[in-house]
Every structure is written in structure tokens, then in C-alpha cells.
Amino acid sequence: MAATQRIAAGVALAAACAAALAGCALGTTGSKEGAHGAKKAAVGAPGPQGAVHLIGDGSTAYTGAQPHLPGPEKLKRGQKPPQFVVFSWDGAGEDSQKLFSHFRKVAKANRATMTYFLSGVYLLPEAKRDLYRPPEHLPGTSEIGFNDDEGIKNTLRQLRGAWLEGNEIGTHFNGHFCGPGGGVGEWSVEEWKSEIAQAKSFVKSWRTNTGMKSAPSLPFDYDKELIGGRTPCLEGQKNFVKAARQLGFRYDTSGVDNQVWPKKQGNLWDLSMQLVPFAGHSGEQLTTDYNFRVNQSGTQTQGDPAKRKTWGNQVRDSLLKGFRRAYNGNRAPLIIGNHFESWNGGTYMRALDQVIENVCNKPGVRCVSFRRLADWLDAQDPATLDKLRGLNVGEAPKRGWASFLSGRPAPAPKGAPGAPAVKP
């Protein structure tokens, strides 16, 4: 899964995706959650040090409750909500760039947990590619290729470590087909169900498919772990959401929204990507490295070296502008999506390093996975969430959080009907 091979193969796909609103993943690519105010990890069944119950061929195993995770907290009356920030990665896998292992270290150093959206074909060896039957394509077809033994071993190592550190393993599905001619935007609900089932299967049967009988199991039951995903290029959301609801998923992050509090669509949290102020420009930009890249260097994955520092600073400053707008305003969760890619000399990865270090250690901030955000949202009083959704982008409560979420009406201004009498 050499990075040079992936980037070369990705150039044509980038051209096809450039007009799309959201990013295409052109390649593959321990800690305590949350930051300030987090409670002690919830007590559960013993972790990997205790009993291990192998599942199927032993590719995965039940090892107890996921370690290093606090239980969700219900807001107290008048309490200011935490500022959630979600850093997520499409097509998570470990290749020669070693970005998966790098961001695990960055997360641990900054008391963050993240969501890694695994592409199932990254656990499927090239020799077994025909096991993948993509909707509307020939067997063994994939826009992002498959993997070799070394790439699979390295990716498995990162997945194990990431989960044990409290991170979430979601899905970016398999073949990453975008655009017309069989792209995910044209798939039916049943075709999405097939794609999801295959993504699960490749995770649950990598030991059989690779012949790596002695490699350690993944320490989670993927049928229970997998509760959400992001569609390739943010396409096909309408039918994917229908399939996801039927399969018991808890969230989708394939949409585009403003920086406002999320809501449920049926039984599924809509945790869409967001628009933030585009530093150096008059408009707003989607919070994904791919979209920044397309707006900076077009279809070129390695643009003008003289501009790379400026481009990276724009990404950093744009995400920080969005963060401050929420942190000092409505406290809506900030959703950020990325790819393990060294586009434009790795400038976007360096920008993310700086953003994580800047925001995750601030008071009241919790850098968490989508799973933990969904847990927190589910724990809140629906009336509280309704009030939060009434705040516009960047809008802080006029009389402060204590009054806004006190459960009591704000006092009327002096002199108004119902206000306390003014002494002469």
C-alpha cells in the first residue's frame, strides 16, 4: 500500500471528484476522552487483560467494555454545555506515511479521542480481491485498490491500539465509487446494505482471507462497534441513511450543515460536516482537507511548493475561526473530516496538528469521537437540545448560559409589565 502508488492512482480520481462538494478519499490512507470535566471511566466488563471471547474465525473478539471512556453526563440546570470537537479520518489505514500512528500519538498527547472510518478493502489482500462484489461494478473492482500483507498487518496494529485508547472505528465502506456510472450516489437501499455487510465481513474475516492465523484479534465486536460512517465524496446520503436506520446505526456524517446543534432524523443523529469562515477569503469552506485542497490547488495533489505554507495556514486559521465562533457562541459541536494523505507536501496534516494542540486543551473543550458525541446527545433532556438548536451560528445566549438553560423564564427588563417595581 505504498503512498506513491496511492497518490499516482488518485490523480485521475481527483479530477473526477473536483467538482463535487465534498472530499474523495484517494487513498488509505490512549488516552482519556475529553478533556476538561470528564468523569472517571465507566465501570464495565474486564478489558483485554480479562476474558477474551473470540468471534467467528477469531479476526475479532469481545474483550469487555472499551477502556478509557467516561460515561455521558446530563447537563445540570443552567450549566454551560461543553464545546465538543470531532476529528475524524476517512479511509483510515496505515501505509508508508504512518499518519494513522502519528495522529494516535497526537490524540494521546492532547487528551483527545477520534473517529477512524476504516475502508473494508484495506483488510482484504489483493489476491482475494474478487471476494468484493461492489454494487454496479464487476467483482474485484475498487477505486482505492486493495492491500498487501504488510499494509494489512500495520493497519490491524493501528486499529487495535486506537480502540484500546478509546477511539472509535467507523466505516468508509469499501470501493469508494463517486460520480456517475455506478457511483454511490446511484445506489439503492439494498445495494447500500450489501456494501455495509461486505465492509463488516472484511473486518470480521481478515484472518481467513489473509491466512494470518497467529496475528492478534481486533479487540471489539464490529457488529456492535460499527454505528456510523461517512459516504464517499458525501454522495448517496439519501439511500444510505435509509439503510443505516434499518441496520441500527446511530449517526451519519455525510451531509453539509452550518455550525448549529445537531438533530435526529428518525433514529439517526445527523452529525454533518460543517461550513466555517475561509481564512483569506470572503466565503465559507467545508471542514475537510480535501475541499481546502481543491480550492487551493485544484486537481493537483502536489501544487506549487511556494504556496504550501500559506495554504496550510489558511486551513489552520479557518478551523480555528470556526472553533472560536462556536466556543464563544452557541457551543455547537465542531465536526472536522480529514484523510491520511500528504497532499501539497503534507501541509494539511501539519495544520491539523496545530489545531488539535490549540483547541483540545482549552477549558470546557472535549475532543471526542462521533460515538461519544452521540452518547452525550442521547443523555440530554430533549427540551434542552431544542433550546440549543434555537441558537443561530455563533449566537451566545443574550443573558448568559445560566439563565438560558435554567429551566425558568428570564426576568423581564425593569419597568416592563411583570417586572419588580422600581423604587423611587
Can you put this structure into words, describing what you see?
This is Lipoprotein. Residues 1-22 form the signal peptide. Residues 413-424 have a biased composition (Low complexity). It is a single chain. The chain is of the alpha/beta class. It has one domain (3-401): Glycoside hydrolase/deacetylase (TIM Barrel, Alpha-Beta Barrel). Helices cover 33% and strands 12% of the residues. The protein has helices at residues 3-17, 99-109, 149-164, 189-204, 206-210, 222-225, 237-246, 289-297, 308-327, 347-359, 370-379, 382-389, 401-404; strands spanning 53-55, 60-62, 83-92, 115-118, 168-171, 228-229, 251-252, 256-257, 264-265, 268-270, 273-277, 284-286, 334-339, 365-367. Strands 3, 4, 5, 13 and 14 form a 5-stranded parallel beta sheet that branches. Strands 6-7-10-9 form a 4-stranded mixed beta sheet, sandwiched between helices. Helix 7 (237-246) links the parallel strand 6 and strand 7.
